[in-house]
């Protein structure tokens, strides 16, 4: 697993988004851009690949998709980026045999970007093991306090037995990763799965059964019924009812309702001037609407993406109220905890530091929290926390730094839990809000 370094500047931007909207919409595009060098694979696409890549970037700009996941973005990556104008774009991991070919172009910023290589691959039908294929993960900041976990995927290709075994392993690896790193979160997985529902050995249904994801194609074009008869799409496809190996799967959360509203093969938009295709894959787009919950909301994040992911949102009871706030710290913030009036207690971090606590009155609520971050052993961590209640009482722990932010619960809400990452100390932290 290779993780990009999390910069303090990016963290600051990620938690200082302007408008705190409670609903909205966005669209996504998944496109395998056929970026292997022509000497390795011409993808049966007419024309010069570099020229075609530049056209693809132009069209990304023209159609203003909010988040675009591309696969096979290898040798002609620079040509796409030269003509695209989205403000947020991942750095390439390299050409074929070096990088995964997975990149994301977005109108939204993100945190916690990670590249993960598949544990298994197969060369039975081709050269899948030539390059480190896998998936990427990022926590996309759609709006202030509105985050969705995005995954870009390119699974093993081919239809030989060894290919299907490797591909099933790929999809299971991703499903297990979602279970660990997206607990309690909204999720969108989109990319080239190289799988069809009519290939049962692939076990593509793992995302539905294990992760509770909905396939936008199945939901919006097939009435919720998985295909049982193979239907091959033309390229360009003029219909949306045929199945491709490119998928978009998603789920909402207790904090965020996420709804797919429109599915489309965008093939007719991505053509050369003479009508020829630009890739051997049909690009697919899905429109989403989102709305934050009235019962549970979240703050932005502060700190760095290290340690194990945690999220209290699944365990928070109805009508929660904070009873006791507990912190432990010294040079840095070692642990945080909260006990609700129901008796539920959530504790995160290590066992070091000096413990301190504050018991709230029956009409007193935890309303804001100041966090300060800094570097320790080349990693960003939370060094300090200051909790303030509705009566003005405070509880602090750790050591303040010069890089701080304050999260304040929306009017009529209180802090009742946490999400973030921890180890021996608190690496990354966000807060869960509930109504008073």
Automatic annotation (TrEMBL):
Q: Name one GO biological process term.
A: phosphatidylinositol dephosphorylation
- The Jacalin-type lectin domain is annotated at 296-435
Gene Ontology, cellular component aspect: cytoplasm
Keyword vocabulary terms for this entry:
Signal
| Listed GO MF terms | phosphatase activity; sphingomyelin phosphodiesterase activity
Q: Which domain of life is it from?
A: Eukaryota
Q: Which Gene3D superfamilies match?
A: Endonuclease/exonuclease/phosphatase, Jacalin-like lectin domain
PROSITE patterns recorded = JACALIN_LECTIN
Which InterPro entries does the UniProt record give? Endo/exonu/phosph_ase_sf, IPPc, Jacalin-like_lectin_dom, Jacalin-like_lectin_dom_sf, Sph/SMPD2-like
Q: Where is the signal peptide?
A: 1-19
- What name does UniProt use for this protein? Sphingomyelinase
Instruction: Report the source organism.
Output: Lachnellula suecica
């Amino acid at each position: 697993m290779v993780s990009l370094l999390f910069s303090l500047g990016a963290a600051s931007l990620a938690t200082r988004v302007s408008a705190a909207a409670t609903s909205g919409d966005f669209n996504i595009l998944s496109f395998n851009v056929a970026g292997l060098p022509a000497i390795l694979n011409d993808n049966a696409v007419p024309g010069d690949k570099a020229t075609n890549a530049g056209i693809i970037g132009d069209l990304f700009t023209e159609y203003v998709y909010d988040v675009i996941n591309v696969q096979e973005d290898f040798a002609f990556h620079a040509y796409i980026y030269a003509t695209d104008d989205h403000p947020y774009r991942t750095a390439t991991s390299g050409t074929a045999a070096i990088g995964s070919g997975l990149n994301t172009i977005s109108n939204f910023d993100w945190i916690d970007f990670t590249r993960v290589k598949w544990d298994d691959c197969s060369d039975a039908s081709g050269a899948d093991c030539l390059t480190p294929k896998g998936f990427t993960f990022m926590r996309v900041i759609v709006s202030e306090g509105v985050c969705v976990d995005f995954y870009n995927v390119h699974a093993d290709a081919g239809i030989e037995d060894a290919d299907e075994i490797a591909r099933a392993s790929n999809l299971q690896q991703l499903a297990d990763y979602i279970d660990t790193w997206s607990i309690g979160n909204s999720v969108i997985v989109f990319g080239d799965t190289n799988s069809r529902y009519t290939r049962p050995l692939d076990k593509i249904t793992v995302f539905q059964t294990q992760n509770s994801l909905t396939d936008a194609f199945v939901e919006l074009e097939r009435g919720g019924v998985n295909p049982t008869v193979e239907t091959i799409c033309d390229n360009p496809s003029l219909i949306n009812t045929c199945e491709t190996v490119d998928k978009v799967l998603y789920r909402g959360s207790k904090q965020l309702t996420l709804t797919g509203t429109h599915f489309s093969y965008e093939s007719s938009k991505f053509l050369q001037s003479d009508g020829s295709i630009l890739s051997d894959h049909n690009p697919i787009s899905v429109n989403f609407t989102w709305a934050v919950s009235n019962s549970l909301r979240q703050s932005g994040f502060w700190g760095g993406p290290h340690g194990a992911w945690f999220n209290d949102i699944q365990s928070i009871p109805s009508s929660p109220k904070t009873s006791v706030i507990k912190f432990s710290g010294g040079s840095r913030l070692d642990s945080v905890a909260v006990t609700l009036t129901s008796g539920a207690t959530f504790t995160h971090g290590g066992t070091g530091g000096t413990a301190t606590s504050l018991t709230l009155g029956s009409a007193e609520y935890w309303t804001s929290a100041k966090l300060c971050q800094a570097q320790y052993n080349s990693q960003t961590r939370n060094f300090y926390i200051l909790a303030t209640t509705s009566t003005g009482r405070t509880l602090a722990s750790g050591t303040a730094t010069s890089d701080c932010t304050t999260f304040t619960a929306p009017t009529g809400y209180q802090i009742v839990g946490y999400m973030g990452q921890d180890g021996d100390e608190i690496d990354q932290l966000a807060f869960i809000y509930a109504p008073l």
